[in-house]
Structure formats: C-alpha cells, structure tokens
Design goal:
The chain is of the alpha/beta class and 440 residues long. Helices cover 36% and strands 21% of the residues. Strands 7-6-5-3-2-1-16 form a 7-stranded mixed sheet, covered by helices on one side. A 7-stranded mixed sheet has the order 8-9-10-11-12-13-15. Strands 19-18-17-20-21 form a 5-stranded mixed sheet. The radius of gyration is 22 Å and the shape is globular.
C-alpha cells in the first residue's frame, strides 16, 4: 500500500486494486477569495492522481476540502472513469445532490458504518459541527485521516482511542486555519500555532501512531484584508521537534509517493516547503472584485430576514432580542471600509446608516452581502478573517447576530425543539467565551 501527497488535504492511498483520493482542491481560491494554495497542481499531476483513483472521499463541505471548481471541471472525467464520491450521509443531502446534478456518482455512508472497497475497510467518523475523519484499514495497516477534526484534548482523544483503537499512520492539520484576532493580536496567533503543534504531538501519543504526516495546512491567507494572519503560521518542519523521537514525522511535497510500510523523511521535501513558506510575502494578493451599493445590501437584508424568519421562530428571535438573553440578536454596527459608510444591522428591523455610531467591526460590503445571501456567509467570514474587530466584544456581537445562518446551514433551527441540540449550542457559546478571552 502506497500513499501519495497531492496537495493541502488531498492524499491518494493506493492498494492492490483500489485508490482512495481525499479532498481534491488543486487550483483556485477558497472562502470568498480569502485563501489560496501555496502550490497549484498542473494538469498533468491531476491527471496522474485521477488515473490511480477508484474512489474520492470528501471529509466535509468547506471549500478547501470540497472544491466546487474541481468537480465542475472534472465531472465528465470522473463519470467516464466511473469514479464515485464517498460522503457521509446527511439529512439535507446537499453535497450529494450537487454532485449527482453534475453527473457524478455518490456513495453515502452512514456515520461509523464499515464500508468495504476491495481489501480496504473504511469508516467515517463525524466530529463536532460538520467535520469528519476517515479511518482506513488494509493489509494490516491502520491509517487515520483526521484532517480538520477538532479532537484536541486528552479526554477527547482517550475516548476516541477507546472506541476506534490505535493507528499506524496519522494524517492531521498542523497550523491554525481561521481568524485569530486582529492585526495587533499576534500573540493569539502565536499561541494558536503552538497549541496546534501540541495537539499533533498529543494525537500521535494517544493514538500510538508510528508515523505522522502533517497536512491540511498548505495554504495562505491571500486577501489584501487578511494577509497579516500569515505572520505566525507553523512550518511543517516544526512538527517533528514537538512530536518527539518516538514517532516518525514525514513531510511530503506534491506528488511524492511512498510505501506506507517504509515512510521516511525526504530532506528535499522539507527544503521545498521551507522555500515556499518563505515566499508567502511575495505572492500575489486577492481582492474583492466590486463594492455592493447600500441599496443592494438593504434589499439583500430583506431576503436574509425573510429566510431566517421562515426557518426559525420569529417569536423566539424577538423574545431573545427584547430580553437581551445571552446578548443574542442585538443590533450590530459595521463600518463598510470600501464604501466608507457606517451602518447598523438590526435583525428585526433593517440596515440603517448611522454615521455617528461606534462600529463593532470593519468589513467590506462584499462580505456583508455574502452573509445576507448565503447561510454559510458568516462561517466563511470567520475562516477568511476579512474583517477587523473595532470595539471590545465586537466579534461576539457579530456572532450572536449572524451565526444563526450557520446553524441553519447545519440543520439546526431556533424553535422550541432547539433543546434537542443543546450540546451544540453550548459548544458554540463555549467557543465565543474562548474568543473573548483570546481578544482580551
């Protein structure tokens, strides 16, 4: 059995008569122009990977794992080669529906269900809001692909180990991958980078991994509003010193192929990535293509409001806002940096110009427009970091207004039945408390 690193979170694991390719993102930007790959695969490399692929596995819906551009471009080729996509069965069937609409076969696997491909046995394990891990066993070797799964502390890992056992090879994210404070809060980013390395070391120890392949962090914050977030990212070579001598750490360059039984570090791969990371500051930056006029934002808000009130209890929204319980749905003041205008967004009212108000945050009109037009808009903003908190508690204010769309996107709605998802709501509030502490 061999493993080929293709790019970012994409690896190709090949056996005797099968090849499972994960999370193909090889070109283009992600998260509303906010992320770019450190390396883009040429067509020949993509063809090479697909020629060895029998199945594609998608870990989750984030665009650096589920690349719409890739599937639109290569749909015919996947269909011609009868390459199906394996995805966790979900209630909404959104990803599966998109793929099938583009002529791509889909195999929906229930969480924790064992699925057989030749002599390979695999299992999809859900994690937190929408992530999932792939556990693959073949030829007596166990490979755990944790990608972005937030299985971080000793208790969580011990519970995971008790259910799923140890692994031989661990693939895991090695650097932070979302907004970590504003321009002046480098300390949070340094802490986040250090914590990520500690997590990798702990994962390897508890899961008894014989080898760790750091991946899923070969990206850069590439927008002119978020480029500063690259200032404390981890280099892949930083994983080995933290993991210690008891585990082999193997950093791989694009299209490097190794036998799973004989993984070893190639010095050329470390040198390759050292050079790439050193050049981040010289790489081109993206920018939003156009501003969105205030009239269009107000129209977008009306659609946003109608969508929220249709999917959630309007009475509960109004009650939470009027009582101030949990600080939910309080008006939020934004400075739209491209329009040089200050507006207040009131979830039960509208979007109003308030030039004398102190903003809670700065952002581009295109970001606010995305929030109004899509349920995943605020999630995208928190990942791409194209905003700046300008008042203490500003980010929490944003989240307690706009995160309801995120919850709806995951099938969670503000109705009396919300108690059935109380654990996820508590998890969300816990994350906000951590953000507040980091900002302080």
């Amino acid at each position: 059995m061999d493993i080929t690193f293709v790019n970012h979170a994409s690896v190709l694991i090949t056996g005797k008569d099968w090849g499972i390719l994960s999370d193909p993102w090889y070109f283009g930007t992600a998260f509303h122009e906010g992320w770019s790959l450190l390396y883009e695969n040429p067509e020949a490399e993509i063809d090479d990977a697909l020629s060895q692929t029998s199945h594609i596995w998608l870990s989750h819906e984030h665009p650096d794992h589920f690349s719409v551009l890739f599937f639109k471009k290569y749909a015919a080729r996947l269909n011609d080669r009868a390459i199906p996509v394996i995805f966790r069965a979900t209630r909404d069937g959104r990803v599966a529906g998109f793929l099938r609409a583009n002529g791509i076969a889909v195999i929906e696997v229930r969480p924790d269900e064992a699925y057989q491909i030749g002599d390979a046995r695999l299992r999809i394990v859900p994690s937190e809001f929408y992530d999932s891990a792939l556990l693959l066993e073949a030829e007596g070797v166990r490979i755990f692909n944790l990608n972005d799964c937030p299985v971080r502390d000793a208790r969580e890992l011990a519970e995971f180990r008790a259910v799923y056992g140890p692994c031989d090879v661990l693939l895991t994210q090695f650097s932070y991958a979302a907004w970590k404070g504003g321009r002046n809060n480098r300390q949070w980013r340094e802490d986040a980078a250090r914590e990520k390395l500690d997590t990798v070391a702990l994962q390897a120890k508890v899961l008894e991994a014989k080898a760790v392949i750091p991946f899923a962090s070969f990206v850069r914050f590439s927008h002119d509003m978020n480029g500063y977030l690259n200032d404390a990212v981890n280099l892949p070579g930083a994983v080995a010193p933290r993991a210690g001598d008891s585990v082999r750490t193997v950093v791989m360059r694009p299209m490097e192929r190794q036998s799973v039984d004989a993984l070893k570090q190639d010095s050329e791969s470390l040198a390759f990535w050292d050079a790439v990371f050193a050049g981040i500051g010289d790489m081109p930056k993206t920018a939003f293509r156009a501003s969105v006029p205030l009239d269009d934002l107000q129209a977008g808000f009306r659609g946003y409001q109608a969508r929220l009130f249709a999917a959630n209890s309007a009475c509960m929204i109004r009650l939470l806002k009027s009582t101030g319980l949990l600080g939910a749905f309080q008006p939020v003041v934004l400075r739209l940096v491209d329009l040089d205008r200050v507006v207040t967004v009131d979830i039960t009212g509208g979007v109003f110009e308030t030039p004398a108000a102190q903003p809670h945050a700065d952002m581009h009109s295109a970001s606010l427009d995305l929030i109004f037009k899509t349920d995943f808009g605020f999630d995208t903003l928190t990942v791409n970091g194209c905003f700046e908190e300008t008042s203490p508690g500003g980010f929490q204010r944003l989240a307690k207004v706009f995160a309801l769309g995120n919850l709806n996107n995951m099938g969670i709605h503000l109705t009396p039945r919300i108690a059935l998802n109380a654990n996820l709501i508590l998890m969300f509030l816990g994350r906000l408390r951590k953000v507040a502490a980091k900002m302080a």
